[in-house]
Amino acid sequence: MAVSWILWAYTPKWAMQALSITYYPDRYWAVALPMYGMCLFGYIVVIYNVWNLCNTNPFRSYYTIRDCAAVPAPRKDRDMSEAFEAAHFIPPAEDMPITQDHAKTSGARASAVALRKFVF
Q: For the chain, which residues make up each domain, given as ranges?
């Protein structure tokens, strides 16, 4: 199929008539159909991502933070680096509460806010 497409697109009109081929589509379609295909592919990728974003729970939703498969951490203030260094094992996977995550990342965020006030 691709070979016939390329032959049709690049063969001059006089060569087609010499082969007794008088009816063929306009050469416009040799460029237009691949471009329509690429635009359709890009459109499908964008629409797929937009559809997923529209069907995702809001960031502040309870279901975004915790769902039925969540494994809560047994202790609130748990420093996993000490446990790893003491026993040389990788701790089991568990969900960190959002408050603990905020407490660990707020120091970096405060410096970023101070930097933003300084720059702007």
A: 2-54, 71-119
